[in-house]
């Protein structure tokens, strides 16, 4: 399955889950009777990780770079990459993925030609945030805060909330 198909599958799964929880029959109080979808489930984790690995492929990241961005151990990384997801993801990993997905989405808006959007990550950048280095260098520092500030930078560049 290609990167676009994987991303579409993830979006459809999330959209379906959201629609099912909000359109189920309401109880006597008028509130929906079912709980929100379990984003901590292995199925949700697997979908999020498939999306991450498709983005990593588009960005041409090495296994070491991918592992660093995910902030996980080597054996866990290779289990996830092989599709062996036995449990939901912890909060820190979910936060990392959220920022990485936001970075990817922001780049697609700012640079609609995929090759340019994907190449931006590795190019030297004169913005003070990057100090002449690339955005990827900043992302690979290993800190969630660095993922956040790169995402915030891209959001501000596109005129979104910063």
Q: What's the SSE blueprint?
A:
Blueprint lengths: L2 H21 L18 H17 L4 H8 L3 H8 L9 H20 L3 H7 L14 H5 L4 H14 L5
Helix pairs in contact: 1-2, 2-5, 5-6, 5-8
Verbal overview:
Mean pLDDT is 83; it is low at 10-27. It contains 8 helices and no strands. The chain is mainly alpha-helical and 162 residues long.
**Unreliable segments of 5+ consecutive residues:** 10-27
Order of helices and strands: HHHHHHHH
Helix content: 55-70%
Largest sheet: none
Gyration radius from CA atoms, angstroms: 17 Å
Count every beta strand, where a strand is a DSSP E run of 2 or more residues.
0
Calculate the terminal CA-CA distance, rounded to whole Å.
Answer: 34 Å
Task: Indicate the mean pLDDT.
Answer: 83
- Percent of sequence in beta strands: under 5%
What keyword list fits this structure?
mainly alpha; 8 helices; 62% helix
Summarize the structure.
By secondary structure, this protein is mainly α.
């Amino acid at each position: 399955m290609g990167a676009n198909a994987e991303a579409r599958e993830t979006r459809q799964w999330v959209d379906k889950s959201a629609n099912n929880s909000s359109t189920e029959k309401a109880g006597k109080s008028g509130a929906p009777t079912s709980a929100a979808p379990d984003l901590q489930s292995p199925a949700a984790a697997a979908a999020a990780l498939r999306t991450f690995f498709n983005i990593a492929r588009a960005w041409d990241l090495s296994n070491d770079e991918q592992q660093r961005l995910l902030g996980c151990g080597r054996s866990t990384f290779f289990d996830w990459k092989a599709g062996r997801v036995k449990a939901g993801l912890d909060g820190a990993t979910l936060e990392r993925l959220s920022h990485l997905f936001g970075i990817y989405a922001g780049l697609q808006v700012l640079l609609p030609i995929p090759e340019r959007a994907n190449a931006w990550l590795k190019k030297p950048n004169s913005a003070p945030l990057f100090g002449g280095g690339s955005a990827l260098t900043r992302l690979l520092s290993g800190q969630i805060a660095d993922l956040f500030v790169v995402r915030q930078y891209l959001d501000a560049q596109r005129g979104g909330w910063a």
